[in-house]
Give the backbone structure.
Amino acid sequence: MLRRDPHPFRTWSALAVAGALILAGILQGLPEAVDACLLCLGARP
């Protein structure tokens, strides 16, 4: 019996959910960052 992690499924599912939330946050913030960069460079009116 593994005594280190009594709930491996719960641990992995929590990691998967956290990873998905982080990935969604990055994908959501990326267009805004690109817009700000283009605006700063003067490429957008």
